[in-house]
Specification:
There is one protein chain. This protein has 174 residues and is an alpha+beta fold. It folds into two domains: 125 residues, Ribosomal protein L10, N-terminal RNA-binding domain (Alpha-Beta Plaits); 47 residues. It contains six helices and five strands, in the order αβαβαβαββαα. The chain has a five-stranded antiparallel β-sheet. Strand 4 and strand 5 form a beta hairpin.
Length: 174
């Protein structure tokens, strides 16, 4: 293999190793201006998009946690690899862009080493934003303690009311 290709494989391998998730998209028929628009939208979420020949991508990905996306059925035609820190936002950008431009197709992805087919990528895109999910999680974690405190305060109030009734009864008898 020529030095330039080896360097491209090594660069792609480093890019993949620094990512927790990747998405493979097809871009056949997408104009350069549209592709630049996609890259701009992805950069707003902190993601990067790289076009690399399928053979070189297969060589680079074979030594990473994303081996599952290197199947021949996925890597046909013109493909780009997208990676970013927030998988949900990246998936949303890709879904929205593919809805606007028919030239972009979601082929597959990998989230922390788990293979995602195109329908799973769309499911990922339908999740609420990370901050909202964290807020829901905090609410779920607080619910048992909040309910316990509420239960204790009701029981305490019942005891206080019973004592007050007893005191009132004793005062009325005197």
């Amino acid at each position: 293999m020529r030095f330039e290709k080896e360097q491209l494989v090594n660069d792609m391998k480093q890019f993949l190793e620094s990512s927790d998730n990747i998405f493979v998209v097809g871009y056949k028929g997408l104009r350069v201006a549209d592709f630049n628009d996609l890259r701009q939208r992805l950069s707003e979420t902190g993601a990067e998009c790289h076009v690399v020949p399928n053979i070189l991508f297969q060589k680079a990905v074979s030594e990473t946690q994303f081996k599952s996306v290197a199947e021949d059925s996925i890597l046909t035609g013109d493909n780009a690899v997208v990676a970013g820190d927030d998988a949900v936002n990246v998936a949303k950008v890709l879904r929205d862009f593919s809805d606007e431009y028919s030239g972009l197709t979601l082929k597959a992805g990998s989230l922390e080493g788990r293979f995602l087919n195109s329908s799973k990528v769309l499911d990922l895109a339908s999740l609420p934003p990370r901050q909202e999910l964290l807020g829901q999680l905090v609410g779920v974690l607080q619910a048992p303690s909040r309910d316990f405190v509420s239960l204790l305060s009701r029981k305490t109030a019942t005891v206080v009311y019973a004592l007050q009734a007893y005191i009132d009864k004793q005062e009325n008898q005197q």
